[in-house]
Design a protein that fits this description.
By secondary structure, this protein is an all-alpha fold. It is 72% helix and 2% strand. The longest helix is centred in the last third of the chain and has 44 residues.
Amino acid sequence: MTNLLYQVSKYLMIILMAFYTLQSYTVFRKKDEDSRQYLFLRQNMLMFFLHFVGYALIYLQYGDFEVILFYGAQVLYFALTLILFRVLYPLASRLLINNMCMLLCIGFIMIGRLDYDECRKQFVIAVAATVLALLIPVIIRKLRFITKMYYVYTLLGIGMLGLVAVAARTTYGAKLSISIGGFSFQPSEFVKIIYVFAIAGLLTHARDFRRIVIATVLAAAHVLILVVSKDLGSAVIFFVTYLVMLFIATKNPFYTLAGLLAGGVGGVGAYFLFSHVRVRVQAWLDPFSDYQQTGYQTAQALFSIAAGGWFGTGLFQGSPTAIPIVEQDMMFAAIAEELGAIFGICLILICMSCFIMIINIGMQLTNRYYRLVAVGLGTTYAVQVFLTIGGTIKLIPLTGVTLPLVSYGGSSVLSTIIMLSIVQGLYMLRNDEVTSREEKEAARYAEEQRKLYGPYGYPPQNFGSGYSGSNGYPQQTSYYGPNARSQNGTPYSEAGYEEEDLSKSRSSIFGRKKAKRQRTRKE
């Protein structure tokens, strides 16, 4: 009976995930706000149902009442996150909030299945990060002076990475993290955000070739320090992010091609200079040539993906724990094995949905600095997703970066939630810009109407002798109402002023005004 529940649940989780993913793209076609809000609500229901199914299976496996309490705490966290963002920031992007919660939900399920203690740590960090994230949109929206501190960001980023290169402990051949007071964190995860702000400032003011060279040198300093620290995954993220931001800022493909050429030369040089790089490249080319040593992790990941097939083996029915460091480096392989390739594809599409939304926000911003920041953060996120999934499926050499919000890693979760919160602030700035443009258009239209038709909304001297004011406008107290009379003192009907003609004249005026409004909207 229990085995039947596991088998049925995997299909149910795939269906829920597929419907959620479909909603993530359907929303881009919805124009009506009520339809969009109803769609977001359905996404929330699908997420909570998926979360319930996953933790029901975890409870069946462990049989511990603490799992129920932990599940309740997570439900409360997701509910409060959705409500607080909606109440505090009604202009925030609901799609990004929903996707963030969905990716965290999948991460909590899979980490809870792999290592329950690590899942509790991840949950605490996610809660702290979300509390911090609730403050960030206000900072982005109100404190405009942060756009002028790009040299401070540059020095801070280089300093933090230099500290890692000197003082960090070596983990799996690379210097990644620093321990302070018993807590270990990876500075490069936070420097990613600072780096984007720094490069955006440098490129915003890059009006000539000299300024572009300065920006390139400072960006290269970040990358070279990461290469020396053997943190090659972060180095690739920083490098690609800079190339994309450079192209958006300059619109010059020559700079991008030159950067790709320099990156290729640097990659070849790293292969011959660092044994750590050679090992990973050789494991990528033929993981089975040294199956018991350097190729073991990649080979086990490929076995897991093959064992899962399209529909997976079911939660707790596979053996993803056979993969070394699976909860950090190979989470996608664990998902593909137990939840199936269809579920994994849907996961990739949700990540793509986040990327599309971030880039869409950036391209609609008129402020050059904020546009570069949005594009840089979106590129950083997309490259990290590509590196971790591409390394898992042997598309590229393994780089050791985490799958954002899904893999275990406190620094990664914290930095990703902060990153998405910054994007929320940029999204609200975009809405502010739209509102400002609409207000300016309305004011311009009102001014045009005043100049054309005057304060009464009708053109002067249009109705002949009935308009006897010095400025050509009607003497309203004399010429309107049931006792209105003409200049010679006779009623309008006696003076030959036909009501039908008056209606036609007014209709003509209103028609011209309506046509004017339509032309203004089209412009």
